[in-house]
Amino acid sequence: MSVRTYGEIPGYPVGSTFLNRTQLAASKVHRPLQGGICGGRDGAESIVVSGGYIDDEDYGDEIVYTGQGGNDPGTKRQIAHQELALGNAGLARNQLEGNPVRVIRGAGGHPGFSPSKGFRYDGLFRVVDHWPAGGKDGFRIWRFRLVSLDNIDQPPTHEPSTQPAPRVPAVIQRLVRNTALALRVKQLYDYRCQICDTRLETPAGPYAEGAHVRPMGRPHNGPDALNNILCLCPNHHVLFDAGAIWIGEDLGVYETATGRQIGRVRMAADHGIAYGHLAYRASLCSGGI
Amino acid sequence: MSVRTYGEIPGYPVGSTFLNRTQLAASKVHRPLQGGICGGRDGAESIVVSGGYIDDEDYGDEIVYTGQGGNDPGTKRQIAHQELALGNAGLARNQLEGNPVRVIRGAGGHPGFSPSKGFRYDGLFRVVDHWPAGGKDGFRIWRFRLVSLDNIDQPPTHEPSTQPAPRVPAVIQRLVRNTALALRVKQLYDYRCQICDTRLETPAGPYAEGAHVRPMGRPHNGPDALNNILCLCPNHHVLFDAGAIWIGEDLGVYETATGRQIGRVRMAADHGIAYGHLAYRASLCSGGI
């Protein structure tokens, strides 16, 4: 394992262009001469988006990126399943640790966002979600939702200020969003986790988190609705969001790694969770195949 | 309890000015005719910063705000302890739920940031921390660190985009920052919580969080150093950050509400946690008096 360099490479600001992969690799902005992901199980530092995977979706400041592997470079079609290994595992690790990836676009990608020739460094993106899915060619692919760091989680600045404050480089490891409907679900369960019954007591009152079952945002577009939100403790929220556990239509809680049932979700009579959303989420754990 | 209105009041953008509290109250930007905090146990929607408390610190986009109560309006001095009740409890609740507060500055506050007369709406701030402390007059006050929403946690935008994405109003309930040193502490404990030994297993590897003991940022200015970071599961991180538990120099874990010992912190021989930082954090739970 090489030492990872997360973040910008000095001397190569956003918009830097490269004639070819040799020049790109020499700059260290994306070190491999081949391969879309520079990374391993410990994390990923950069990716190239250049239209090599038919399942990629590019929206400019948001990208639904296809992991590596199982791809015929000649036809760009998938010919085998992808695994959560190597660079794919690295991108998932970045999500857990909050480390950003450098995104390089190459000619051949989305015409609205890609350079007409060569490669261009387009800035730092955050991995906000990952899940396996059935690709257009019928094989399992790993998908990663990336959002430009310019549009998310800027650290607070301290200017104007009457005294200097120490600044520590930090990334956001975990960001929990709350909605008015999530608050109602938490109140419905009196802030008790629906999986383990934990109620975190603090001097400011109880704490729990609202977990959207079918994720909001592309490409899932789950609704912010009572029937799509669970009340979970932070630990079970992490496990749920990371796809470590899923919930069956029998309301059993299942471990993705083993398939074993490890518990049951408690449901209030007036909650009305949508089983279709539970099934959608479960499909994200089983790979959609 | 009245229904809370979090966020901007239509018709009153940032910079709106008001001649006096009557006009301010009529606008609903800050409804009470007296009192610095509009809020109760369920949350707080607005505060006025106007130099009424000698412990207030104003840095423009960051404010260390003193809670309400125990204050002689004539002399502005504290004459009694403050409690985590009423508006103070409301501000703490905002921190847990992520709801923003409207900040109104009045003449009499920090000369660099306050209007010369009347009141001015200065935008939405996030409550990022709260703790009791010994005030300058020797009584316990509750302090709240507020950071301008303009400088933190902007939601991702979706422009430019080839298709509209649904947008749901959300606030950030919880934001966990990660640093390179936090990663080293997590590796030192193999991602096991030092309090409960939990190791959250996900398909992308184990998950834990680095918890700074003496908080970074004003006014604590704790260092980002190995000797100031614990490896905790998200649940214990929430309890620790909310002041629900503290750690003694005997490495016992104590419940703030009851004083009862509920466990012990496991320490690796080569971690070298600084006991001074533990004592500083414990003082934030005991009220600093």
Number of strands of chain A: 16
Report the CATH C-level class of the largest domain in chain A: Mainly Beta
Q: Estimate the mean pLDDT confidence of chain A.
A: 90
Shape of chain A: globular
Task: Give a brief rundown of this model.
In chain A, 17% of the residues lie in helices and 29% in strands. The first copy, chain A, contains 5 helices and 16 strands.
Secondary structure elements and their pairing?
Two copies of one chain form a homodimer.
Chain A (H helix, E strand, L loop, with lengths): L16 E2 L2 H7 L9 E4 L2 E7 L7 E2 L3 E5 L19 H12 L3 E6 L12 E16 L5 E9 L22 E8 L1 H9 L11 E3 L2 E3 L1 E4 L16 E4 L1 H8 L3 E3 L4 E4 L5 E4 L10 H12 L3
Parallel strand pairs in A: 3-6
Antiparallel strand pairs in A: 1-7, 2-3, 4-5, 5-8, 6-7, 7-8, 10-11, 12-13, 14-15, 15-16
Describe this structure in words.
Two copies of one chain form a homodimer. Chain A has 289 residues and is of the alpha+beta class. Chain A folds into two domains: 17-150, PUA domain-like; 180-286, no CATH class. Helices cover 17% and strands 29% of the residues of chain A. In chain A, the strands form four sheets. In chain A, strands 1, 2, 3, 4, 5, 6, 7 and 8 form an eight-stranded mixed sheet that branches. A three-stranded antiparallel sheet of chain A has the order 14-15-16. In chain A, strands 10-11 form a two-stranded antiparallel sheet. In chain A, a hairpin with a 2-residue loop joins β10 (200-202) and β11. The longest helix of chain A is centred in the first third of the chain and has 12 residues, at 86-97. The radius of gyration of chain A is 21 Å and the shape is globular. Residues 153-165 of chain A have low confidence and may be disordered. At the A-B interface, α2, β9, α3, β10 and α4 of A face α2, β9, α3, β10 and α4 of B. β9 of chain A pairs antiparallel with β9 (171-178) of chain B, so a sheet runs across the interface.
